[in-house]
Write a structure and sequence with these properties.
Blueprint: H1 26-44, H2 48-68, H3 76-87, H4 100-114, H5 121-131, E1 154-157, E2 164-168, H6 175-188, H7 193-207, H8 214-226, H9 239-244, H10 247-258, H11 269-303, H12 310-322, H13 333-340, H14 344-356, E3 360-362, E4 373-375
Antiparallel strand pairs: 1-2, 3-4
Helix pairs in contact: 1-11, 2-3, 3-4, 4-5, 4-8, 6-7, 7-8, 7-11, 11-12, 13-14
Length: about 375
């Protein structure tokens, strides 16, 4: 008989029946539905070209940030090229900057967000194959498109000799059964879709079935679940971006949730609450992106006949893409020169012309050598 203390959630007799207090989540679920309604309302006022643009940008952010969470950094232009190649009818192959890696990751993201056929073990293996289509994990050859065969799967951090063990996964012999139970639950469970996505994410990483890539597959499963409801315009927002923005908190929350020495009551309300807050933030961030796009559309509708130079258009678009409040310091002569590579005299002349045409206005309180401008939206 094994008398060792139970430390990991898969060792608890109630696993995988996750306990949580749904009543404490009702208010937050209502907030999410509210923000989704705003997101949907804004999107309804946009044309299909703009919606396609927002969806592509959200997918780009998802690809970049689900990889960055794991310390892998992709070039935005490569991800963009992979998406254009996949989604647009007319793709300029002469300027193709995609890579096998970004092509494969894009395949996963498009499949999990648009293909609502049932999840299967084979499909998970296909996603995993895409993640490692052109690489091994440094010195160690990992099993690709196949579950791990070893029992000593540990999540660790820290320098060699000073490692900290955050989690030990269940034995390999239980993986096939555990994954089947999870996939059946995903297919049959009628719980609120946001709660369901939180539990599926946690459940998959607790099984930790692969040698590597478990976090990215877990987030793909989350995307799949959230995309499976007609209530959710999922690809208008990026959950991985919101997670990346609080990456340390994400890992800390997983640590305390999966460790029975901390999660003594085997209660998962706090994890679900954290996940829901992250979904809400992703929606709020997407609302801002949509609002910036609407402002940009209205701005160019008003100034399409102003015969602005390409450099003036470049500066204006740089501000419009992020909003005046996020373009730190506003537009000034020095910044204009840096962005357009022109002389001071040309920058001064360009800025005066933008003021005269009503494109920009002096920021209140700025004057003299410190004069700054913002775009009129």
């Amino acid at each position: 008989m094994d008398n060792r203390p139970q430390k990991w959630i898969w060792q608890h007799p109630d696993y995988p029946h996750f306990n949580y207090d749904k009543t404490s989540l009702i208010d937050l679920l209502g907030q999410i539905e509210h923000h989704h309604g705003i997101l949907h309302g804004i999107s309804m006022s946009m044309n299909q070209k703009d919606i396609q643009s927002i969806k592509i940008e959200a997918l780009i952010n998802e690809a970049i940030n689900t990889s960055a969470i794991e310390g892998e950094y992709l070039k935005r232009e490569s991800v963009r090229a992979s998406l254009y190649k996949k989604l647009l009818q007319h793709f300029d192959a002469k300027n193709d900057t995609s890579t096998h890696q970004t092509d494969a990751l894009v395949e996963v993201l498009i499949d999990c967000s648009t293909n609502q056929t049932n999840l299967t073990q084979e499909r998970l293996h296909g996603w995993h194959n895409c993640l490692f289509v052109s690489s091994y994990n440094l010195l160690y050859k990992i099993r690709i498109a196949s579950f791990r065969e070893h029992d000593d799967m540990q999540v660790v951090s820290g320098a060699m000799g000073h490692e900290k063990v955050h989690y030990i996964a269940p034995p390999a012999k239980s993986i096939d059964k555990d994954i089947k139970v999870l996939l059946d639950w995903i297919e049959d469970c009628d719980e609120n879709i946001y709660i369901k996505s939180a539990l599926a994410h946690l459940w998959f990483v607790s099984i930790h079935p692969y040698d590597d890539g478990n976090g990215r597959i877990a987030r793909a499963i989350t995307d799949y679940i959230l995309s499976g409801s007609s209530q959710v315009d999922f690809k208008l927002y990026s959950l991985s971006t919101a997670i990346k923005n609080k990456r340390t908190e994400y890992y800390a929350m997983l640590d305390k949730t999966t460790n029975l020495f901390i999660n003594r009551n085997f209660d998962f309300t706090e994890w679900i609450h954290w996940h829901l807050e992250t979904v809400k933030q992703a929606m709020i961030d997407a609302q801002k992106e949509l609002e910036y796009l609407l402002q940009k559309t209205r701005f160019w509708d008003a100034h399409r006949l102003d015969a602005l130079s390409p450099r003036q258009v470049k500066v204006l678009n740089r501000v419009l893409d992020v909003g005046n409040e996020n373009f730190e310091g506003g537009i000034n002569t020095k910044k204009y020169m840096a962005m357009t590579k022109v002389s001071k005299a040309t920058a001064v002349r360009d800025i005066k012309e933008l003021v005269d045409k009503g494109c920009i206005v002096q920021i209140e309180g700025s004057s003299g050598r410190n004069v700054r401008y913002e775009v009129v939206v």
